[in-house]
Description:
elongated, mainly alpha
Amino acid sequence: MAKIATDRTTIDLFAAEKRPGRPKTNPLPREEQLRLNKRNQIRRDKTKGLKRIECKVTEQLYQQLDTKAQALQLTRSALIEQLLAEALAK
Length: 90
């Protein structure tokens, strides 16, 4: 019997072939993974000397920041940091 690449019903013929998708490798539930990842992110930021600040802005200002950041090929965070540094330098 010939192996036809589009035939997926004979699994034994394709056992060695890698399947698309990410295999489940983490034994922790998703909520626990997210909590652990967030904790690790906070540690990495702390090591880099970064501090978190939050502020609420209007939808219009948010869109302007997003558009400007994309035009400059920056993240919104990097753009805001740059704008704050320029404002404080004056």
